Amino acid sequence: MSDKHLSSQFDADLNLASSKVLEMGGLVESQIVNAMIALNNFDLDMCEQVIAAEDRLNQMEVEIDEECSNIIARRQPAARDLRLLIAISKTITNLERAGDEAEKIAKRTKRLMEDGASRQINIAEIKLSGEMAVSILRRALDAFARLDTVAAAQIVRDDKAIDEEFRAFVRKLISYMTEDPRSISVGLDFLFIAKAIERIGDHAKNIAEFIIYIVKGTDVRHKSRDALEREALS
């Protein structure tokens, strides 16, 4: 078998693994969108749909991880190819966890409905942060497909806005529960939902950081936003 043929097959293996990541990402994105629809409409059927789809995400994570391990064992890649496979493994872990957060939103929404909770609390910040989380994850997946470090750096910056919405909602929630202790149980459920959305933004940010690692060869986790941006744009 010629070296050229081996190289072509290796490229095909890498492309297939990357495409499976994007497929998994699309499913996670749908999960988050559906979880927010369930919350906004108190839709029990949609809650069940989100919860039921979690098994498929778990299966995809295992399948893609196994494929990455097989490629490493067969091809013994180096440099950027090895970084890509490592980043794929870490990316699907973050996608699976983002799916877990969508499932949490659905389960908490279901619990709110079963408890007969009414819309006593204005959840405008939750709705906005949910829309932002879907957007930032979609852009992270697009940046991954193109290995776009400039877009990745912007995603890391934009995650800060989701954190700010979360903090604003927590402040409002604390004030509301202080004024009306009867709302504490419902308030805590909404707090868990808000936290789940914030964590989805964190997972999208992590994926953006892996893009920079693939292209630049530098681990930018735990670096300041300014330092990360300098690395991404250098």
From TrEMBL:
Gene Ontology CC, one term: cytoplasm
Domain PhoU, first and last residues per copy: 21-109, 130-210
Keyword annotations from UniProtKB, A to Z: Cytoplasm, Phosphate transport, Transport
Keyword Membrane belongs to the record: no
Signal peptide residues on this chain, from the entry's feature table: none
Subcellular location(s) per record: Cytoplasm
Subunit and partners: Homodimer.
Function according to Swiss-Prot or TrEMBL: Plays a role in the regulation of phosphate uptake.
UniProt record similarity statement: Belongs to the PhoU family.
This protein's name: Phosphate-specific transport system accessory protein PhoU
Lineage, opening ranks: Bacteria, Pseudomonadati, Pseudomonadota, Betaproteobacteria, Burkholderiales
